[in-house]
Amino acid sequence: MKSFIAAPVPDRTMVLFIIDGCRADVMYDLIESGEMPNIKKEILERGIAAENAITCIPSTTFSAITTSMTGKYPGETGIVGNRWFDPVKLESRSYLNRAGYYKVREDTDAKTIFQVLLPRETASILSPVNKGAAFIVKMDSNYIGMGNYMIGRWEYVDRVYMQHLDDVALYANKAGIFPVLTVVHMPSTDHIGHESGCISEEYKDILKNFDSLLGEAVELFTRNGEREKISIIVTADHGQVTVGESKHADIKKVLKDIGIRGSKILNVSKLHNDKGSMRWFKKKDRMNGVSYRRREKQLKRYNIIYAVNGRCAYIYIRKNRKDESGKEKFQSWDERLNLEEIENYTIAKGVDVNLINKLLENEGVGFAVFGNNGSADIYSEYGKSSVEEGIVEGRKAYKYKVIYGEDPLCMNEGPWSRLLDGNFHTVDKWLEYSNQQRYPGVITQIASLVNNPRSGDLVLFASEGWDFEPEKKNNAAHGGFEAGEMRIPFLWSGPGIRKGSIGTIRSVDIFPTIAEYLGVAKERVNEIRIDGVSFLDEVLSP
Would you state the pLDDT for residue 276? Predict the structure, then answer.
């Protein structure tokens, strides 16, 4: 990076780095061992680190970045995963191709941090969530980066896109002011994790590569005499967990094993070109530009659609009712099944099954979650629990109880079991012990997610060590709610930020905290009605 910043830099300016698929514990260990010296020197020794930062459910890239950039959980933004189906509009999405990568802009009405900061200048490098940014670098705007992306030279992918900070400086010189916020998405760590594992040497090496690039970025700011004005945050969208060899459950096969056969099952990814990087340049999308009537006709051939998001899968089911003559007749996709209908689902003439129990018989399916009139029913092989959302003193609160059998989330073990008293408790209470929990953040998110129509009639989460992507054969994956995929790093140094550590924060809190730090009035943020809460007071110098 060789640019000269001639434009004025605001006294509080922020560069936010989002490392895709970075496990918090792996990064923190590398920092502590001295293998990420630039982060240690420029951030940890100058600012704060979160002991426990929790991402959203599902722990997927497009859901998580949207959550960080809007302050709302996926159930509120509608970006419920990298792939989903909308049973009302009969539209499907896969963001994992060139045609779909930036469709997040049109798929949610949630205001982004870039929009809230208007009319001030902001910049986005590679982030799929960029509505409102003045200067935008897209994935396919750099053919050198795309070329390295397609052949898997990941250390060069991060380097090429990090160098666009040079372009931000050049843009600032033309605009007459440096952007008050620049968001940089670094994609390579996630890909390396999938290929080699999230605790492999290759995974650690790509994190060290980022550390080196961060050092070059700091050099750019220091050379221009602006380092002390620039605040730096390093975080991630989600973590990853290890997937065992041959532990890749095929949702279509799981459904067929139950007895649902033939052309009745549709994989959402079949409607989009997201198989392999060489298909990136094929823009054709069989669900785009097609009339509602044609989509309706096309989808009448199916009675189950599923969308896989790593270790999470959405199951969309068309109701089948018998008319007066006893003949089965399928209803429209937007008519949601109730619990009784799922527990007595007809798979063949005269054959009804409990669909939840049958799905949980598969070794790779760990949890099945059903959205029940605003609450969430959580099933495992060993028991059932429920999460109910309510209001306590004007704030969202949650009640958790075990319905029968063993507690699926293991919440009845440990100090947090005192919250299972039949009463509603606020988010703060549920997060108080989340750094020790096996499934952090579930209680405060799951009901919102599973009651969004885009999440389907049932939401499945993979068992420990499993995913739902048999074609990819990943060595690590994410999308579920185990600690390794839910916990992310969060480090911050800059003007006014104290040194030390803070306790538990959530990715949904990043939006209001950044907004307040950069001078947006709390009242303006509160008008948006977000899920996040600013933690700025905890990190400011006395």
Answer: 41
Report the alpha-carbon distance of residue 334 to residue 318 in Å, rounded: 8
Amino acid at 381: E
Q: Read off the tokens for 490.
A: 């969060």
Residue reference for tokens 């990298």: 82
203, 237, 185, 274: which is closest to 59 by C-alpha? 237
Topology of domain 13-71+110-242+484-539 in CATH is Alkaline Phosphatase, subunit A (3.40.720)
Q: Which of 147, 113, 134 is nearest to 16 (CA)?
A: 113
Measure the CA–CA gap between 188 and 475, rounded to whole angstroms.
15
Show the CA angle centred on residue 209, arms to residues 204 and 213, nearest 5°. Answer: 145
Beta carbons of 221 and 496 less than 8 angstroms apart = no
pLDDT at 47: 97
97 neighbors 273 (Cβ within 8 angstroms) = yes
Rounded CA-CA distance 96/307 in Å is: 13
Give the residue from 537, 482, 43, 507 showing the smallest Cα distance to 242: 482
What single string gives the DSSP state of each residue in 303-355? SEEEEEETTEEEEEE--EEE-TTS-EEE--TTS---HHHHHTEEEETTEEE-H
CB 236 within 8 A of CB 489: yes
On the question of a cis peptide bond just before residue 58, with omega within 30 degrees of 0, the verdict is: yes
Mean per-residue pLDDT pooled into runs of 10, the chain (542 residues): 82 96 97 97 96 97 98 97 94 87 91 96 95 91 77 87 92 94 96 97 97 93 87 98 96 92 84 52 51 84 93 92 62 89 85 94 97 95 96 90 95 88 93 89 96 96 97 96 97 96 96 96 87 95 83
pLDDT of residue 288: 58
**pLDDT value, residue 322:** 61
* Residue 365: per-residue pLDDT: 98
> What's the alpha-carbon Rg for the chain, to the nearest Å?
23
Integer Cα distance of 151 and 192 in angstroms: 13
- Nearest to residue 435, comparing CAs of 491, 500, 490, 486? 486
Per-residue 3-state assignment (H helix, E strand, C coil) for 132-183:
CCCEEECHHHCHHHHHHHHHCCHHHHHHHHHCCHHHHHHHHHHHCCCCCEEE
* pLDDT of 433: 86
Pairing of strands 490-493, 230-236: antiparallel
For the chain, domain boundaries = 13-71+110-242+484-539, 251-373+451-473
**Other Cβ atoms closer than 10 A to 149:** 22
What span, in angstroms and rounded, lies between the C-alpha atoms of 154 and 205?
11
User: pLDDT value at position 324?
Assistant: 61
Looking at residue 326, its pLDDT comes to: 58
Rama region for 266: left / alpha / beta (φ>0; ψ in -120 to 50; rest): beta
Rounded Cα–Cα distance for residues 306 and 294 (Å): 20
Angstrom distance (rounded) from CA 267 to CA 255: 12
Neighbouring residues of 23: CB distance < 8 A, sequence distance ≥ 6: 193, 198, 199, 236, 239, 240, 484, 487, 488
